[in-house]
Specification:
The chain has two domains: about 150 residues, Rossmann fold; about 100 residues. About 50% of the residues lie in helices and about 10% in strands. It is built from 15 helices and nine strands.
């Protein structure tokens, strides 16, 4: 099989793995398989998993590898059509009306036709994804869909079914080529089955120790090897505890970067305590690890690594 060529849709699972690795994203074969099928079948890919495990990064790496624009719809509670799809530039429309009146124009149909033309339409992410100007389908990232309400989810279901949006004043805008859709959710609520049925699904889990160590080597190349091993072993053990929020890969990278900036070559209780804010984001979790449990965890990590050597 030929090597992957940047800008081209991968033609095999191995090429998909190669494409992701070229973007410093280390994926398992199951993820590469579902991503390959999503691209070949032109179906949205629904990625579920804890925050910080790298779901959003997949869309970024994909857009870069395929040389496509990345259009991101960041979801939040109360997201509406005006923010997600389109709205009219009302100040510019009012100015146009005033200028027409000042010029003595009385043809209301002509004024209406002018102000509801494409040049006054503000395209938000959904409409941008459906009407890419160069005709090349973008990568459309719908990030943290679970933060929206069910009404918006129902609207999105219609968009993903036909890849079109109706603007009453202009008519139906249909994608010349359907965008490559990546949907992520942190599972703060269940997304309706009707939307999931239109997608291919994959659960993105925390990486295993060997994979996370390789991620540190790639993302924080200045990090000492001993320190990298200790960081990964410590984080892996943290995730076995009953914390309010387990650290994700993003936090592991941040911690490794912070410790490298501090010129540390290994973990010690004081360093761990001083830098926990880059790894854990809730005070109850930090207070717990700052106590005796954190020191015990560090002793176990160092003992485990000595035994491995």
């Amino acid at each position: 099989m030929a090597a992957y060529r940047k800008g081209a849709i991968p033609q095999s699972i191995d090429q998909t793995l190669e494409m992701l690795a070229a973007g410093n994203y280390l994926a398992g074969r199951s993820l590469a398989t579902v991503l390959f099928l999503s691209l070949k079948m032109k179906r949205p890919l629904f990625l579920e998993g804890e925050a910080g495990v790298g779901k959003t990064e997949i869309a970024k790496v994909l857009a870069h590898a395929l040389d496509r624009p990345l259009i991101r719809l960041q979801c939040y509670e109360g997201l509406d059509i005006a923010s997600a799809v389109y709205e009219w530039n009302y100040p510019a429309q009012m100015l146009e009306i005033r200028l027409a009146e000042a010029a003595g124009t009385t043809d209301r149909d002509r004024i209406e036709s002018d102000i509801f033309s494409d040049r006054y339409l503000i395209r938000r992410p959904v409409l941008q994804a459906l009407s890419s100007p160069d005709g090349r389908a973008p990568v459309f990232l719908i990030d943290e869909l679970d933060r929206t309400d069910e009404a918006f989810e129902a609207f999105l279901l219609e968009v993903l079914s036909d890849f079109q949006v109706t603007v009453p004043e202009l008519g139906t805008i249909r994608a010349a080529e359907p965008p490559i859709v990546i949907i992520t959710t942190n599972r703060t609520r269940e997304v309706h089955d009707a939307l999931k049925r239109r997608c291919l699904y994959h659960w993105v889990d925390y990486p295993k120790a060997e994979q996370e160590l390789e991620i540190i080597r790639r993302k924080v190349p200045g990090c000492n090897e001993t320190l990298s091993q200790q960081i990964v072993a410590y984080v892996q053990r943290l995730r076995t505890l009953d914390l309010f929020k387990n650290p994700g890969v993003a936090e592991t990278i941040d911690w490794a970067t912070a410790l490298t900036e501090l010129d540390r070559t290994g973990l010690d209780p004081e360093t761990v305590s001083d830098t926990l804010g880059t790894l854990l984001k809730y005070q109850d979790d930090i207070a717990r690890i700052e106590g005796g449990e954190g020191r015990k965890l560090l002793d176990e990590v160092k003992s485990e690594l000595r035994t491995a050597v």
